[in-house]
Amino acid sequence: MGSTTYSIDIWGLLVAMLMVVAAAAVSGIMRMGVGRTLLWSACRALLQLCAMGFVMGFVIKANNPWLVFALIAVMLVAGVQITLSRAKGVPKGLAGPVLLSLVVTMTMMIALVAELIVRPQPWYAPQLVVPLTGMLLGNTVSALAVGLSRFYESMGERRDEIDTLLALGASKWEAARPSVVSSIRLGLLPTTASLASSGIVTIPGMMAGQVIAGGDPLDAAKYQFVILAAIAALTLLADSLIMLMVYKTCFTADDQYRPLV
Hints:
Elements: H1 10-29, H2 35-62, H3 65-86, H4 95-118, H5 126-157, H6 159-167, H7 172-197, H8 205-212, H9 217-246
Helix pairs in contact: 1-2, 3-4, 3-5, 4-5, 4-9, 5-7, 5-9, 6-7, 7-9, 8-9
Transmembrane segments: 6-26, 38-60, 66-84, 96-118, 124-149, 186-213, 225-247
Organism: Bifidobacterium eulemuris
Membrane topology: Multi-pass membrane protein
């Protein structure tokens, strides 16, 4: 298998940015109102990715476990902020439960994938652990934001039903359970769709990146499956854990439904 790599120069980045500019122009012509957001998001993504590239290069070169942990900690804190900014209609004060959910599930999943499946040397190999954290965290953040939004929306829609259930003697969990299940299912939809379409309709990012970089396609496929399996398990665990921690926020101490203000 050849090891030819294809680097992207500054002109390639400019062409990519021009594609976004063209899309924003179409948005302006059709008065869709998303052109400015599209341009801002693209510029922000370019800066963030380049900055992360420099930081990862430094961490990999330093090969220090404390730098790896520090970078992962920053990513987790940013993940909390992004989760809460994307989630709509959620109460304040959820930063702690979201951070705890991410830390517990991410630690468990990275330990399983890195130390039991890949088994890098050294165990904290930054070129493996940091990108792995980023891929798992990105998908989990999206699932948590969708799940939280759907949970509180569903609880509001089911207000009369919940009051009736509580009046008939149902526990808080029994009254909230349909909304919990609904939110977890919605959060899992993108993951299950990716699992179903991978290898037939799509070639996911990690596999495509390894092949473009000159890696063996079969090895790339194995890595991609491990990542997809980890994302599926992590999404379900993180969504379930956060729901167990937040569903009581919809009830008073007297077991009555408490609508969000």
